[in-house]
Amino acid sequence: MDLMTLVGPVMTSPLLYPLLAGLSSLDGVVPMIPSEAAVLAAGVFAHTGTPSLSLVVAATALGVFIGDHLAYGLSRSVFGPRLINRSQHVSQTVAAAGQQLNSRAGLLIVTSRFLPGGRVTMNAACGTARLPLSRFSPASAIAALAWAAYTAGLGFLGGEAFVENPLLGLAVGLGLSLAFGGAIKLTRRRTTRRMARPRVRPLPYAA
After folding, report:
1. What is the pLDDT of residues 86-102, one digit of tens each?
2. How far is CA 122 from CA 5, 73, 108, 170, 186, in A?
3. What confidence tens digit (pLDDT) does each residue in 144-175 have?
4. Range of the domain at 30
5. Which of 41, 60, 166, 183 is the most exposed place for a label (fewest CB within 10 A)?
6. How would you write 29-82 as a 3-class SS string?
């Protein structure tokens, strides 16, 4: 019995939607939870009509939105700094992200959703910097819907392209997702370095 035969009953069950919402919520606090693989698998099965692709996207987006606010609230509480400061790398990354929130919070929240580990870091930065919910929540909603549609859509396309081998479609979807996230991370890193370079002004001409 292969893997897809084992997960088939779950993917055709009405309990799939609350399961996706729960996994996507917990993933905002515990990054080790494989919510992306679950959403991709649901997208692969959705090409047959069951489960519903639109419901997969809606349940996932709702879960991501809730998870974002859980991480935001936790990092804003008294426990946030204690958890963040346990790792020097995490604390430095959160501090660096927090410095850019005043000028482009919405853009950073949306783009970080597609970066490996970017969701947790940005949510922690927003909570630590006490970014107002009036700015955080709308950006989180857009990011959640965009990521849910993108991830489920990748699985759906993989399921259509590899009808006879859904597992291969899932693997291709994961590969494309990782490649896209790596491309965004590389672009952001180059942009940050370019902006950080000091601009040398020419000296005034001395007569």
Report:
1. 666 667 777 777 778 87
2. 37, 13, 8, 27, 17
3. 999 999 999 988 888 776 655 666 666 666 66
4. 9-195
5. 183
6. CCCCCCHHHHHHHHHHHHCCCCCCHHHHHHHHHHHHHHHHHHHHHHHHCCHHHH
